[in-house]
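Hi P.,

Sorry for the delay on this. The queue was packed all week, but I finally got your sequence through. Input first:
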Amino acid sequence: MTITAALVLFAVIWFLTLLVVLPICIKTQGDLGEIVPGTHAGAPEVHHMKKKLWITTGLTVVLWAIIAGIIISGVISVRDFDWLNQLEPRG
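Then the structure:
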């Protein structure tokens, strides 16, 4: 795995993890009963963004280490997903 591939893998995992973590423990204006005129009741009032970014980074480091380890060790390779036998034979 090249350095660029490792960084791209980290970025993809980070953004996917962020999208999973974002809606957790969010308090909306509708939940608190203090809706600002002109805004949606589902607009976040308390979102704890800094904490969520740290959680996302921590989870990403763990997931990245596991996935990168699997890729580097060769336990799973691209050939494992070649169900139609379209890759050239090993030579």
